[in-house]
Amino acid sequence: MCSGCRVDRGQVCPEGEDSSVTLFREYLRLRTVHPKPDYDAALRFLDRIAEELENTYMLYLQIVSIMTWEGTNPALKSILLNSHTDVVPVFQEQWKYDAFSAFKDAEGNIYARGTQDMKCVTIQYIQAVRRLKAEGRKLMRTVHLMFIPDEEIGGHEGMETFVNHPEFKKLNIGFALDEGLANPGEAFTVFYGERNPWWITVHCPGSPGHGSRFVENTAAEKLVSVINSFLNFREKEKHRLNTSECLTLGDVTTVNMTMVKGGVAYNVIPAEMDVSFDLRIPPTVNLQEFEKQIKQWCKEAGDDITYEFAQKHMNQNITSTEENDPWWSTFSATCKTMNMTLEKEIFPAATDSRFIRAVGIPAIGFSPMNRTPILLHDHNEYLNEQIFLKGISVYKRLIPALANVPPLPDEA
Ligand SMILES: [Zn+2]
């Protein structure tokens, strides 16, 4: 085993490499990839880290692990540093390198699934806490590092379940940090809300009959009308996004037709045809009004059309980014002292933050990666080691700033 790093068991010692980078690469090699993530490997890894950091380590529901660094005033609300341990599958043939080898090229770009989403953040939290502890720092509020599974498959067995667990409430969280996205420019993107995913299937019944005749009231005619209504709306939203300087993807509703079902034979007019859409709705949209609009489209398309939702999120909580909010003002002021420019956005997809916000806890999605192309879930996902290392310094400033936010009026 090399003195400067933690590499052993026959691996090549990356001479001169920063020990945080070595630890990051070790974590990237753990195959916590769907559909069969090796969570046991992640838990063994985290267990070892907790021991190194002398943090209290707890395991809940057999899979959610939490390391706790107790504050000097543990009665105050705590700070949650959340990260998920799973990663999405890869199409290995599309990758330049083995997606689980954590190959580092001459420029210091580390290639692996999870470099951006979000094993970088996990190790950055850990290393920032490690450095703060090594300096003998004491923070006022308790800091919890939470490592949660199944985010990439909707979080139902992970965060969605855990936020309603009595042990979660006991953590007494006041503010949470969770994942964000890379930013190709100089700025850093922060997310204060998410769009609501609605997965809807519209059933279009019609008169069946022989394929040689002009049957009235067919399922196909209704289907076409429904599809046109949804896709016309899609065009309008796309146009709105493309013609406005200040809108990002998170500010508009995306509509995509994802499945069509129906029919049994060439010469048989079917009695029903179904179409499904994936909608992502920003928190600024009135959801009741929006559903009325859908109802209207169905009504206009013909008789007896029904719809059902496979997923219909109604939570429109957003985290305050007002300057008088104690958490946000601390977060943004600390970033300012590091000369970081922040761009505030609504997250275009979904993360575990939506479950945290749903139980009333403010959460900011933030992965400190600027000058980095957005490659989450993509082939050849990578992160440069210098950007990664800079992120540790960012958290080393943010964590104490947040954990030292003075007692709030409701904590007195
Ligand atoms: Zn993620």
Quick structural overview:
By secondary structure, the chain is of the alpha/beta class.
What does this molecule look like?
The protein is of the alpha/beta class. 31% of the residues lie in helices and 23% in strands. The chain has two domains: 19-194 and 318-411, Aminopeptidase, CATH 3.40.630; 196-282 and 284-312, Alpha-Beta Plaits, CATH 3.30.70. The chain contains ten helices and 17 strands. Strand 4 and strand 5 form a beta hairpin. The longest helix is centred in the middle third of the chain and has 25 residues, at 219-243. The radius of gyration is 24 Å and the shape is elongated. Mean pLDDT is 94; it is low at 1-5 and 7-12. Zinc ion binds next to loops. Residues 84, 117-118, 151, 179 line the site of zinc ion.
Cross-sheet strand order for the largest sheet: 1-2-6-3-7-16
H/E series: HHEEEEEHEHHEEEEHEEEHEHEHEEH
Mean pLDDT over the full residue set: 94
**Can you say what the CATH homologous superfamily of the largest domain is?**
Zn peptidases
By oligomeric state, this entry counts as single chain
Distance between the termini: 50 Å
Helix content: 25-40%
As residue ranges, the low-confidence spans are 1-5, 7-12
Helices, by number, come to: 10
CATH topology of the largest domain: Aminopeptidase
How many structural units, i.e. domains?
A: 2
CATH class of the largest domain: Alpha Beta
* Strands, total number: 17
Global morphology: elongated
Radius of gyration: 24 Å
CATH architecture call of the largest domain: 3-Layer(aba) Sandwich
The structural class is: alpha/beta
Strand content: 15-25%
